[in-house]
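Re: that backbone. Tokens:
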């Protein structure tokens, strides 16, 4: 089989979300199936670490797609020409976008439809592009992979897609996400939290991540407990969405909020291992990989009772209504003060995380590719 793949998100030291899914799936498929040829389409110079095996052929297709005008050109012109020249058996796109100008069968991975629900997280041109092309990409794809049952239902409702067209393939946490020893916990607290205990949030500073309520809840927690606990915001410090920066600036205890910037996987694992809890209470998310990563590291979870979170967190988390600040505050206090609660959350979280496996997810992706090709072969077979 000749498999073409959109690998735009395979960027060194930036494997978050889409990039993580792409990396974890492809590095398993390429090694497990040496009989297949994989053609990786990059939109810029690539890092050799992503050429996982001898059956991977990298192809750079310009221009680099960094804003909507270039998105259009890359997918609808440059990529379409490259596919026509290569004539692969199938095209896999893990970033939710694809080309409309090809006869090659297409499988598209959709992680969420956040831009439909929280347009304020996107700039004007991105929003217009995604609103126009999102449903067209979904309709043009032979099969869609959704990363959660919640996302599958959202695609069906938003874009009126036949449910039979969508398969669910979950994210997972890498095997390197595991418990750390006490010495590592002490060291990471010293480095990032001035030696104090801390809650942590992992992700972008976006409206749908519900950060305004998180900041308010942390303020209330500090007022009610008088503790020295910090709140670590792990990820790039780029404010996206109205009111988030203002809410932070209005905090009474904003000096207790620490922005770490991007961290390596090794440090992220240590942060999970040392945290009082990972507090991830989004108003909407397609999966929330940080929850499974933290659970696998033995970190208690406080998360939302909405969107994909109950599906992903299972019984291994304290669920709260993300729109009620008092509920988030109560959860922070309860997890901080009650060792028994923390212990129960850790044990249940470890059990829940075991449900997810990149090996299993990679195999499901291969089954979808084979399903599409088998359907194509049957449709071309003489009657």
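Recovered sequence:
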């Amino acid at each position: 089989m000749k498999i073409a793949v959109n690998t735009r998100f395979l960027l060194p030291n930036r494997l978050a979300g889409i990039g993580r899914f792409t990396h974890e799936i492809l590095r398993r498929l390429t090694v497990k199936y040496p009989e297949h040829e994989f053609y990786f389409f990059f939109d810029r110079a690539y890092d050799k670490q992503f050429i996982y095996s001898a059956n991977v052929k990298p192809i750079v297709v310009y221009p680099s797609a960094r804003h909507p005008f270039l998105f259009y050109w890359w997918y609808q012109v440059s990529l379409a020409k490259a596919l026509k020249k290569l004539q692969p058996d199938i095209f896999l796109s893990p970033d939710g976008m694809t080309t409309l100008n090809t006869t090659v069968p297409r499988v598209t991975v959709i992680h969420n439809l956040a831009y439909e629900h929280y347009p304020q997280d996107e700039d004007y041109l991105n929003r217009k592009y995604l609103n126009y092309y999102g449903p067209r990409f979904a309709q043009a794809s032979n099969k869609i992979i959704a990363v959660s049952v919640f996302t599958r239902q959202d695609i069906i409702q938003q874009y009126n897609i036949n449910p039979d067209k969508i398969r669910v393939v979950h994210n997972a946490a890498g095997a390197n996400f595991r418990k750390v020893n006490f010495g590592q916990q002490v060291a990471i607290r010293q480095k990032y939290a001035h030696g104090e205990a801390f809650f942590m949030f992992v992700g972008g500073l976006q409206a749908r991540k519900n950060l305004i309520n998180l900041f308010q809840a942390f303020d209330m927690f500090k007022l009610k407990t008088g503790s020295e606990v910090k709140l670590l915001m792990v990820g790039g410090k780029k404010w996206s969405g109205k009111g988030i920066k203002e809410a932070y600036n209005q905090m009474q205890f904003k000096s207790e909020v620490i922005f770490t910037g991007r961290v390596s996987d090794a440090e992220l694992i240590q942060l999970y291992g040392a945290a009082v809890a990972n507090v991830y209470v989004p108003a909407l998310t397609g999966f929330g990989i940080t929850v499974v990563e933290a659970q696998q590291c033995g970190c208690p979870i406080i998360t939302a009772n909405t969107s994909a979170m109950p599906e992903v967190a299972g019984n291994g988390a304290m669920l709260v209504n993300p729109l009620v600040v008092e509920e988030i505050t109560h959860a922070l206090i309860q997890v901080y003060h009650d060792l028994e609660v923390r212990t129960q959350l850790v044990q249940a979280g470890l059990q829940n995380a075991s449900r997810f496996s990149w090996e299993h997810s990679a195999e499901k992706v291969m089954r979808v590719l084979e399903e599409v090709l088998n359907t194509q072969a049957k449709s071309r077979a003489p009657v």
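The mean pLDDT is 94. The radius of gyration is 22 Å.
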